[in-house]
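Practice problem 4.
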């Protein structure tokens, strides 16, 4: 059953464990994959990180995170393109199945959100040949609109699907429940995205949400209907692995083994 598979986005246990400890924990708790963040990979070194993961037999369902192309000047935009190319090389070295790409925020002092979105599209076009050559798909992740100013100027599945259509091969979508659950056009846009969906992240929306970044919820603790969204995603054509990704001071304060045990229980019960 494809729906029985869960990957661990390592941000979920970033304060408890190193890369090596997190990979061992994921294997111990029956996860089928992991998705590391760049700081953890660079701390271990990409070659060593690749060895650790290969030895574990786990999939690397994603590498977080690239994109963030908007910048105040041409030099800044070029630096971001160059950095994304390096990240693609690292992704190849650790055997990642895709890189998660987010929009980036407004350049300092800017009030021009359309310009930021245009810079994102241009940056994406600039790195795409490198990604295609490395055979690393770029999974475009729309972010919740509350991040439009500082992290994710692209906020809807519709916009990311348009970019896939405009730029062609080598792109796909990362659908994260936390970022898209509110979308009134969710069913329609997931159906339209169809086979472009290559990654499915899960995380709940807590009421109240006390912090914009670090108060994300364990599945079942908030208001998201995971099974309903999964049905839409499977109907669209993606039946692959799900990836739990929770940024939470609450869960970071608990032992890693407890977090993974609960995540696996909730995944089986409510996702
Ligand atoms: Zn995500």
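Answer key:
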């Amino acid at each position: 059953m494809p729906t029985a598979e869960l990957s661990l986005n390592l941000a979920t246990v970033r304060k408890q464990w190193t890369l090596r400890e997190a990979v061992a924990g994921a294997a111990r708790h029956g996860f089928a994959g992991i998705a590391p963040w760049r700081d953890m990979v660079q701390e271990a070194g990409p070659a060593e990180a690749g060895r650790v993961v290969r030895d574990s037999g786990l999939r690397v369902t994603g590498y977080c995170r690239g994109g963030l192309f908007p910048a105040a000047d041409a030099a800044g935009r070029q630096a971001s393109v160059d950095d994304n190319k390096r990240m693609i090389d690292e992704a190849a070295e650790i055997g990642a199945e895709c890189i998660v790409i987010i929009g980036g925020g407004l350049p300092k002092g800017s009030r021009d959100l359309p310009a930021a979105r245009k810079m994102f599209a241009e940056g994406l076009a600039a790195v795409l040949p490198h990604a295609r050559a490395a055979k690393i798909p770029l999974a475009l992740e729309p972010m919740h609109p509350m991040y439009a100013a500082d992290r994710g100027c692209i906020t809807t599945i519709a916009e990311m699907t348009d970019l896939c259509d405009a730029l062609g091969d080598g792109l796909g979508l990362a659908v994260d429940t936390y970022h898209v659950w509110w979308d009134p056009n969710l069913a329609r846009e997931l159906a339209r995205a169809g086979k472009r969906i290559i990654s499915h992240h899960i995380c709940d929306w807590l009421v109240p949400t006390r912090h914009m970044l670090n108060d994300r919820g364990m599945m079942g603790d908030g208001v998201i209907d995971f099974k309903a969204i999964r049905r839409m995603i499977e109907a669209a054509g993606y039946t692959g692995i799900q990836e739990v990704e929770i940024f939470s001071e609450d869960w970071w304060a608990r032992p890693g083994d407890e977090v993974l045990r609960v995540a696996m229980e909730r995944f089986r019960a409510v996702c």
